[in-house]
Amino acid sequence: MHRREFLTTATAGATLVVFPAVLRAQSKEPIRIGFPLPLTGTFAAIAADMQKGAQLAMEELNAKGGAMGRKIEVLFRDDELKPAVGAQRTKELIENQKVDFVVGGLAAHVQMAINEQTKAAKKLYISVSQSDEISAKPDTSPLTFHEALNPTITSRAMATYGMQNLGKKWWIVYADYAWGKQNNAVFTAAITKLGGTILGSTPYPLGKPEFSAHLPKIQAAKPDVIYAVTPGADNVPFLKQAISFGLKKDAKIAQPLHFLYYTKEGGAEVFQDIYGATHFCHELAETLPQAKRYVEAFTKQFKMPPDAYSGYGYNGIMEVARGVELAKSTESDAVANALRKNREYDHYKGKQWWRACDNKSFQDLWILKVRSPQQVKGEWGLFDVIGKVVANEELDRTCAEKGFA
Amino acid sequence: MREALRRLPAWVTAHPIASFIVFFAVFPFLVPYQSLATQVLIFGLFALGFNLLYGYTGLLSFGHAAYYGLGAYGTGIALAKLQLTSLWVALGLGFGAAMVGGALVGFFCLRRRGIYFAMLTLAFAQMLYFIAFHAADLTGGDDGLRGIPLYPLSLPGVSLSLRHPLAFYFFAYALVVLAVAALKRILDSPFGAVLQAIRENSDRAVACGYNINRIKLLSFVFSASFAGLAGALDALRLTVVPVESLYYTTSAQVVIMTLLGGAGTFFGPFVGAATFLVLADRLSLFIEFWPLVIGVIFMAFVLFLPRGIWGTLTSRRAP
Fold first, then answer.
1. Which of A102, A278, A290, B292 has the greatest number of C-beta atoms within 10 Å?
2. Concatenated DSSP letters for A236-282?
3. What residue segments make up the domains of chain A, in order of their start?
4. What is the ipTM of this complex?
């Protein structure tokens, strides 16, 4: 070694010994991901599931050395399912915690409020629950990614499956707010296009699940299937009232989504034979090796199987890490470009991809039917997977329809 | 030193505007992040408006979200839907919407007293909430009003970007200082004295020859205007207006902040807003049931220190 090389190396070495913080600050600072979600409020159970998925992703990534040799740190914040709180929490994460990226939001209106903050701060945001607008102009941005399904995809998939397998004459009951109205509009258009008939539709105020005045009218119309867009806590009261009016004997009942935890809480007696879609359920472990690995890791850690939304949380963190590795950078622009250039990913249930125009994730979904109380397997085996709708960009609106020229 | 501290509340009470200017000039450096400081300023202004009506005039409104929401939507719609590019005009529209809304609602509600008055204010606010909820083309419905651009602020000869949280803080600070000075002027005027006379004994105020209905209406309009300015500023701060801005929970929040800080005191609303928001921000990092903690603190104040934080400090330490 030459004298000059020796001096350079020795000086650098001595600097690192004397000032270890320099090394830490430059290369070992964790990559920070902010994650606002409603840990309290109506969707707390789903949020807890999503949080577990994100936590599992963080731990798996860190066990393999993180991304770019840096640990991943996920900072969860309670947005209370309120947009103003979601916005404030996101500001806190960006200003105070200096997060590099944001993942999260559960409910369209909170996602919108988070998205406004990440757009202003030029941070990459992966949104992880249903919304049609978040991946369309004018709300979206080159830094806004949407991992979850949306009402259009969900209702078109349910309409396609339903027309082939459940019946031709439908009645829709929907909660009168954005998600309910979107599902009603998309489902009506899809059924009509496929040659079916919408006999009628019943809007009701979200959170006021009183249907006794409407049920006789629905019964008199004799639909083959009722499409119940009765989210969250309205789901069980609707089904109980439908059962007590004998509606469940006269018609099949389908709904946009099934949630394992809600179905378990409501019981197989109530949910028996109800159809619904999902992007993930733990029963997929029986057929998909990726799902088997995920379900086993999740169950080992949390002593319960994952529900669907854990997958969104898991993927959100995994995709940030993949983007960082690909871009070799934590700059949001670079990571977003890297994800758009390397669109395909498969973390827990099979191939997914980002559509280049709107950063929307496309993924397979499955149709579930709830088992009868006698058929339920163990504590958690409530669903029969009875169909699969393969990921298809045609299920969503086109890029042009979403405002991309 | 202890003597100086003992005299501080009295000095602050004697020099409210100067104290306000000094304290809030350093406030953003005392809290964990600047957007939190701005939120305290804005909600302090909202509570200040509420306090004028409740603390000084003795009229309990349960629907002050209406004026906060009108201010927010007025400014938000001006920028996002009408595509105006002047922040001043947009703020003016929000402020004006709240003022007109206050005049209309006040005109009807002030025909009743006590619980009927309170219920009417609540009913009007809830009506506005449902209108905003369903008029999605204009308000964004329950997805909220998005896409509010934060244009640079044009001042004579200069254009200031408000994108940095500290820049926005001092913009809000300047407007809130003006509002606080305006409130001081109102309270120090003969009109302000009559407001307090109405609060203490409205029959006696009538007997003294004051047209108390007109004075109450003016107080209502001033109060709504302050709340509207707060809403307008918050629309710019968040660049989104959630429909919950008009919901009764927002009205309840401002009642809690005012009572916590001290109703009928000049600084109570700001003290209440700061206590509530900073506690909520920090506590929610550690415990999920933080509203319970704030609830217990609030109940303790209502039961044992009904003058609120600032009211207790100033009443005990006054010479």
1. A102
2. HHHHHHHHHTTHHHHSEEEEEE--HHHHHHH-HHHHTT-EEEES--G
3. 25-149+289-362, 152-278+365-395
4. 0.91
- For residue B310, give Cα distances in angstroms to B130, B193, B274: 36, 21, 12
Contact between A53 and A128 (Cβ < 8 Å): no
Cβ count within 10 A of residue A300: 9
Give the architecture-level CATH label for domain A152-278+365-395: 3-Layer(aba) Sandwich (3.40)
Please compute, for residue A52, the number of CA atoms within 13 A of its CA located in the half-sphere on the CB side: 21
A48 to chain B: closest CA residue = B288
Question: What residue has token string 């001006």?
Answer: B78
Residues on chain B touching A115 (C-beta within 8 angstroms): 146
Fill in the amino acid letter for A214.
Answer: H
Burial classification of residue A334, based on how many CB atoms lie within 10 Å of its CB (0-12 exposed, 13-18 middle, 19 or more buried):
middle
Report yes or no: B245 and A84 within 8 Å, Cβ to Cβ: yes
Q: Residues A111, A129: contact at Cβ < 8 Å?
A: yes
CB pairs under 8 A between A and B: 80
Q: To the nearest whole percent, how much of chain B has pLDDT over 90?
A: 81
Residue A371 DSSP label: P
pLDDT in tens, B144-202: 999 999 999 988 888 899 999 999 999 999 999 999 999 999 999 999 999 999 999 98
Helix ranges, B135-211 (H) = 136-139, 165-188, 190-200, 202-207
Global confidence as pTM: 0.91
Which stretches within chain B are classed as H helix?
2-14, 16-26, 34-51, 65-80, 87-109, 114-134, 136-139, 165-188, 190-200, 202-207, 212-238, 248-261, 268-286, 290-304, 308-317
Q: Which residues of B touch A (CB under 8 A)?
A: 32-36, 39, 133, 136, 140-144, 146-148, 150, 163, 165, 238-240, 242-245, 281, 284-285, 288-289
State the Cα–Cα distance between residues B314 and B307, nearest whole angstrom.
10
Check if the beta carbon of residue A292 is closer than 8 Å to that of residue A285. Answer: yes
Residue A178 near chain B (CB below 8 Å): yes
Q: Where are the domains of chain B?
A: 2-317
CB contact under 8 A, A109 and B143: yes
Q: Output the pLDDT for position A5.
A: 56
Give the SS3 label for residue A36. Answer: strand
Q: How many CA within 13 A on the CB side of residue A40?
A: 15
| Among the ranges given (A293-302, A316-325, B3-12, B133-142), the one the predictor scored with the smallest mean pLDDT | B3-12
Residue A278: how many CB atoms within 10 A of its CB?
Answer: 24
Tell me the backbone φ, ψ of residue A35, rounded to 5 degrees. Answer: -140, 85
Do the domains spanning A25-149+289-362 and A152-278+365-395 agree at the CATH topology level? yes
For residue B151, what are its two tokens? 């244009």
Q: Do A96 and B244 touch (CB under 8 A)?
A: no
On the question of a cis peptide bond just before residue A138, with omega within 30 degrees of 0, the verdict is yes
Burial class (CB in 10 A: 0-12, 13-18, 19+), A206: buried
Torsion-angle region of A122 (φ positive above 0: left; ψ -120 to 50: alpha; else: beta): left
* Residue bearing tokens 């991943």: A72
Q: Dig out the tokens for A259 from the structure.
A: 């949630």
What's the CATH code, domain B2-317?
A: 1.10.3470
The yes or no reply on domain A25-149+289-362 and CATH 3.40.50.2300 is yes
Q: Exposure of B287 by Cβ count < 10 A (0-12 exposed, 13-18 middle, 19+ buried)?
A: exposed
A13 pLDDT exceeds 60?
Answer: no
Alpha carbon of A176: minimum distance to chain B alpha carbons (Å): 9
Asked if pLDDT for residue A324 goes beyond 70, the answer is yes
Closest CA to A88 of A166, A36, A22: A36
pLDDT averaged over every residue in chain B: 93
